[in-house]
Amino acid sequence: MQELKKNIFFVPGEGNGQFPFCNGLYLAGRETRLLIDAGMGKQKILACMDQGIDGLILSHCHYDHRSFIRLLQSIPLWCHGEEAPYLQNRELFFEGMGFARSGIGWEELQMDRLSVTPVSKLLSDGDFFDLGGVTLEVIHTPGHSPGHLAFRVNGDAVLFTSDVALTSFGPFYGNDFGDVDQFITSIQRLAAMKADCTATSHAGPFFGDVSERFQAYENAIYKKDRALLKMLERPLRLEDLLNYNLLYPAYHEPAKLLRWFERVEIEKHLERLIRMGKVGTEGDFFAKV
Fold first, then answer.
1. What CATH superfamily classification does 2-217 receive?
2. Is 112 a residue whose pLDDT tops 70?
């Protein structure tokens, strides 16, 4: 663990915190000790358990953030109210992720690995906790998922933005319950919160001003808009836009899943561009207006 500030620890995930792992945060309050997320790897989780954990917060329901929750089943679980249904019902998670219509089977996705875990406390935007020498503020940042959470720790000391990940790839919203416009709002909200240290689930920690990172992360969305508009200078169907690495630079394994994520993101960008009046439709065809 890396101590970012007194009693505030960054827990780097295995594989540099890249999928199927994530980075987490451990808060060692005098009265309450909290762990944020449970996808850092078995040894990282066990090290936190050795220090004591009174509560586990999941920033959201994705697999890489709860893959080792089986080690923590005796510890109360907290999450946002909009995320709880996906943590407590595997079929609903399967549907919300978009897998139910993807043609990718439950066994192929190894969904049987997901634990169904009762939620002990539902969190809301603005919830504030004094853990004893460490304070925690909950920030609802939807877009990546409906109940995605970020966190401010000791005011401006540490900002943990979870999967507003500030990576070069940009925001991910390739699930049915993802939302591009909500993601933009969440990015802008977090960017306005200055902090001494900013950490994310898959990058960082970063010290000092990270405004350029937030801007580049947001700009990745607009780059996808422009790529689609360029393709749509002539009328095309959705199927014509697929399998050209339009949004993903490579379809590494599991390639079938990445192609599905790209399809969902293209669908969301088309809907967004239609709302903006930049794309029109005629039958099954889409074209730049």
1. Ribonuclease Z/Hydroxyacylglutathione hydrolase-like (3.60.15.10)
2. no
Cβ–Cβ under 8 Å, residues 164 and 171: yes
What is the rounded CA–CA span in Å between residue 260 and residue 284?
19
Output the pLDDT for position 276.
96
The tens digit of pLDDT for each residue in 186-215 reads 999 999 999 999 999 999 999 999 999 999
Q: Please tell me the distance from the alpha carbon of residue 20 to that of residue 18, in angstroms, as a whole number.
A: 6
Residue ranges of the domains in the chain? 2-217, 232-288
Residues 6 or more apart in contact with residue 201 via CB below 8 angstroms? 13, 17, 22, 23, 24, 37, 59, 64, 65, 161, 162, 163, 165
Which residue matches tokens 């990282």? 44
Specify the pTM. Answer: 0.94
CA-nearest of 143, 169, 175, 165 to 245 is 169
Q: Which two tokens stand for residue 204?
A: 């960082």
Q: Per the structure block, which two tokens stand in for 280?
A: 């029109």
Q: Under DSSP, is residue 4 helix (H, G, I), strand (E, B) or coil?
A: strand
Count other Cβ atoms within 10 Å, centred on residue 31.
11
Tell me which residue of 210, 171, 219 sits closest to 192, measured CA to CA. 210
Computed over its alpha carbons, how large is the radius of gyration of the chain?
Answer: 19
CB contact at 8 A, 120 and 105: no
